[in-house]
TrEMBL record:
Subunit architecture: Part of the 50S ribosomal subunit. Contacts protein L32.
Signal sequence interval, chain numbering: none
Name of the protein in its database record: Large ribosomal subunit protein bL17
SUPFAM superfamilies associated with the record: Prokaryotic ribosomal protein L17 (SSF64263)
Keyword Acyltransferase: no
Compositional bias of kind Low complexity: 131-142, 157-168
GO molecular function: structural constituent of ribosome
Annotated segments matching region Disordered: 128-188
Gene (UniProt): rplQ
Stored Pfam families: Ribosomal_L17
């Protein structure tokens, strides 16, 4: 059972607060991201993640449980057909809160809450590549890129013998051109 919140609620009563959070979750699923205050973003995040977890199950009972919280059938359909399958490989952490600065009128701290669409494997490889790139100096990065290019060429050559033979012919032609240029330079 969730821990009750201490202090003032978002609405005037607990019922009003639940209504606010359900509407915000529906807007999040409909638009993919919403801008709101940090407090509301932090309060809607657990609700949204629980609803996404139920939608990942995909059965009729889960759909009925989600329909108890979000009454708009189009939004629930979007949640079950688009959002949940795209997050199937994630085991949590479906949303991200980003602070954006104060609101102009009342200086309230604002935040963007959004559904993470990038897959876990993609984010891991992106972070790993970024970490490796930051650790290497520029010259080492160039050498790494050349090594990767050579490695990919080797893989392509192993894949098709015809391509390997064509590559050998091209390498010989380049070597002959270089030899002809050296001979012409020596003759001058």
């Amino acid at each position: 059972m969730p821990k009750p919140t201490k202090g003032p609620r978002l609405g005037g009563s607990p019922t009003h607060e639940r209504t606010i959070l359900r509407n915000m979750a529906a807007q999040l699923f409909q638009h993919g991201r919403i801008t709101t205050t940090e407090t509301k973003a932090r309060r809607v995040q657990p609700l949204a993640e629980k609803l996404i977890t139920k939608a990942k199950r995909g059965d009729l009972h889960a759909r009925r449980l989600v329909l108890q919280a979000i009454t708009d059938r189009d939004v629930v359909d979007t949640l079950f057909t688009e959002i949940a399958p795209s997050l199937a490989d994630r085991e949590g952490g479906y949303t991200r809160i980003t602070k954006v600065g104060p609101r102009k009128g009342d200086n309230a701290p604002m935040a963007i809450i959004e559904i993470i669409t990038q897959s876990v494997a993609d984010s891991r490889t992106t972070r790993a590549k970024a970490g490796k790139a930051a650790a290497k100096p520029a010259a080492a990065q160039d050498e790494a890129v050349e090594a990767e290019a050579t490695e990919s060429e080797n893989i392509e050559e192993a894949a098709s013998p015809e391509a390997a033979a064509a590559q050998e012919v091209a390498d010989e032609a380049v070597a002959e051109d270089a030899a002809d240029e050296d001979t012409a330079a020596e003759a001058k």
